[in-house]
Amino acid sequence: MDNTMRFSDLHCREVINLCDGARMGEVSDLLFDPVCGQITALVVPAQSGFAGLFSRNECVIPWGCIETLGEDYILVRYRPK
User: Fold this and answer.
1) Once rounded to an integer, what is the mean pLDDT over residues 37-45?
2) Number of neighbouring beta carbons within 10 Å of residue 62
3) Residues whose CB falls within 8 Å of the CB of residue 58, separated by 6 or more in sequence, listed in order
4) What does the alpha-carbon distance between residue 43 and residue 59 come to, in Å, rounded to a whole number?
5) Closest CA to 27 of 45, 52, 54
6) Which of 25, 29, 32, 71 gets the highest tally of CB atoms within 10 A of its CB?
7) pTM, two decimal places
8) Confidence check: pLDDT of 3 > 90
9) Is the distance from CB of 80 to CB of 65 less than 8 angstroms?
10) % residues pLDDT > 90 (the chain)
11) Cα–Cα distance between 62 and 41 in angstroms, integer?
12) Cβ(43)–Cβ(65) under 8 Å?
């Protein structure tokens, strides 16, 4: 059984925060540790209205916050600091 995933499998999946039920957006990128090669976080563009169109605000969600990798969505428990 193959348990591997590609970036394209995660890219554009909807991220939902279980802490408040909010839709956070879609995965736009991944961060990884180049030393060990493991993914460390998901990157989701920040939801910030009209002003967000001209800035590169993003929400970096640590990999440990992921609860479920569903087929169409990713459930996380994320509380921004």
Assistant:
1) 94
2) 12
3) 28, 29, 43, 44, 45, 46
4) 6
5) 45
6) 25
7) 0.81
8) no
9) no
10) 62
11) 4
12) no
Contacts of 80 (CB under 8 A, 6+ apart): 59
C-alpha–C-alpha distance, residues 58 and 45, integer Å: 4
User: Which residue reads 């925060």 in tokens?
Assistant: 17
- In this structure, how many other beta carbons lie within 10 angstroms of the beta carbon of residue 74? 21
End-to-end, the C-alpha distance of the chain in Å comes to 38
The residue type found at 29 is D
Render 8-48 in DSSP notation, one character per residue: HHHTT-EEEETTT--EEEE--EEEE-TTT--EEEEEEE---
